[in-house]
Amino acid sequence: MNKLLLPLLLLPFLLHAQDIQRYQKEVETIQKNNDSIWDATKPTLVFTGSSSVRMWKDVQQRFPEYQILNNGFGGSQFSDLQHFLDELILDYDPVKVFIYEGDNDISAKKRPRAILKLSEEILHTLQQQRPQMEIVLISAKPSLSRWHLRRKYKRLNRKLSRLAAKTDGVEFVDVWTPMLNNRKVMDDIFIEDGLHMNKKGYDIWQQTLKDYINLNTNLN
């Protein structure tokens, strides 16, 4: 094999290993924080996924009747979550988990079909390990900075919605539509980067998700 070709072939694997190492430290920080707040005797709801979850700092305060762990890790994709399913979800034996991934997958130019395959694998693993656990897939959100990718996001959301519809124990919640005004994304629900949400954005998420938090969840 050409000596110059081998490093090029290895480059994607090396970059992935570096990403996992970066997330390893963040995941360890999440676990350490949870050690100080998590009560294993109480039913637990886990929120995980990319930065839209990670930056939802007051999710516990918005739903005070439940014990909620925010295990979001910024910049993550479905493949990263797949690597840390134990550390971010399964180790806490939640009654329900909310997953927000796909936003960064599309931005990274992954095809919706490939993203769907990963999400199917994740759902299979979670249901094999925790058959009674309920799963909610949160749709990709619209944003000002990624509005040019809206067709791909809408295609992914349709695929995730169909996946949830045919999978027992899995729900799909649409946060895309409530964040639109006359078919365009609202411009006052984001911070300066046009990607991450401000309080108004999370108010929409709270209103949209509240019924899914209550849905079929037996916390007695």
User: How many domain units?
Assistant: 1
CATH topology: Rossmann fold
CATH superfamily: SGNH hydrolase
How would a crystallographer describe the biggest sheet? 5 strands, parallel
Number of helices: 9
Helicity, as a percent range: 40-55%
* CATH level 1 class label: Alpha Beta
Provide structural commentary.
It is a single chain. With 220 residues, the protein is α/β, with parallel strands linked by helices. It has a single domain (44-214), classed as SGNH hydrolase (Rossmann fold, 3-Layer(aba) Sandwich), CATH 3.40.50.1110. The protein has nine helices and seven strands. It has helices spanning 5-37, 51-54, 59-62, 78-83, 85-88, 103-107, 112-129, 150-165, 199-214; strands at 44-49, 67-72, 96-100, 134-138, 170-173, 180-181, 184-185. The strands form two sheets. Strands 2-1-3-4-5 form a five-stranded parallel sheet, with helices on both faces. Strand 4, helix 8 and strand 5 form a beta-alpha-beta unit. Helix 7 (112-129) runs parallel beside helix 8 (150-165). The longest helix has 33 residues, at 5-37. It is globular. Mean pLDDT is 91; it is low at 10-16.
List the topology elements.
Elements: H1 5-37, E1 44-49, H2 51-54, H3 59-62, E2 67-72, H4 78-83, H5 85-88, E3 96-100, H6 103-107, H7 112-129, E4 134-138, H8 150-165, E5 170-173, E6 180-181, E7 184-185, H9 199-214
Parallel strand pairs: 1-2, 1-3, 3-4, 4-5
Antiparallel strand pairs: 6-7
Helix pairs in contact: 7-8
Summarize the structure.
By secondary structure, the chain is α/β, with parallel strands linked by helices. The chain is built from nine helices and seven strands; from the N terminus they run H-E-H-H-E-H-H-E-H-H-E-H-E-E-E-H. The chain has a single domain (44-214), classed as Rossmann fold (3-Layer(aba) Sandwich), CATH 3.40.50.
